[in-house]
């Protein structure tokens, strides 16, 4: 595919001809590798939960020198608190949320940290308020969120089953689990902090992945309702045609979503960056899974049905019937024989008269009429 053809396909002038279903083993190997790495990261390293999940210390004090959040973070980094949540409230109030200071800092180190922060802000160390806070995202909220997630997944399964069929619902559910596992694995492998914004982003990812999958399934259902098309290409072939029809639509939709996410990731605050990072990973994996995971799973499940197996078997037998018998090596083709002369049949003889029959008299011509004078 040259650059001009790729640009025409991007603009929708031509339909690409990718053999996606034919190479489904490649996509299965790629997804399997990513899932194994993600599970390894979750088991070995685990997730780095923020103070909203684990609780910690809250530091509040007035800023009289106009320090920035990065300058405050540089001080905290010297005490192992570079991932602390720093906010400037009202322009002159600094609020820091970090893990409990008593976890890994001695009393002298805690006093030194507070003195350094107070000196940076131009206030007395006694003006720095230190409070121990509990998790804002407790077990009750987690339980309610889990119940809501289960209800949503069941509702999605019922909807896809009623709108399409249960085999499409299986493909959609596998794609969503695929997206969540990889997103969580990326957080575990990179060590990024998991905040409530991350959880919200992951739940948003499920909706985006489902949207793209439903668009593809709708096109597959439309094309597979044609018996002639299925008889010509098999069910997997029709799924591949459908994917090529909506491929650039899915890619362009994902690009439109990725652009504002990138702007939040590059120019947003710390809270927005956590949300944007999860959304970026989820959007990319969702666009991938709807095409390279959900659709191939559907094709594999449908090809096991007897009627589609018969279609494939018939198409595989047809080339054998049309194939000519091979000529042995070294043999010469037979010489063309001269055409035989056409045999002219003799004219039939008149039948002999029967015995006892009277010979037929020859008919005389009537006399010509005389002209009158």
Gist of the model:
The chain is an alpha+beta fold and 373 residues long. The chain has two domains: 3-47 and 138-316, Multidrug efflux transporter AcrB transmembrane fold (Up-down Bundle); 56-133, ACT domain (Alpha-Beta Plaits, 2-Layer Sandwich). Helix content is 61%, strand content 7%.
Structure description:
β3 and β4 form a beta hairpin. The strands form two sheets. This protein has a four-stranded antiparallel β-sheet. A two-stranded parallel sheet has the order 1-6. It starts with a helix and ends in a 51-residue tail after the last helix. It has helices spanning 3-11, 24-44, 51-54, 69-77, 107-121, 139-163, 166-190, 196-224, 227-267, 270-303, 306-322; strands at residues 48-49, 56-62, 85-89, 93-98, 129-133, 193-194. 61% of the residues lie in helices and 7% in strands. With 373 residues, the chain is α+β, with helices and mostly antiparallel strands.
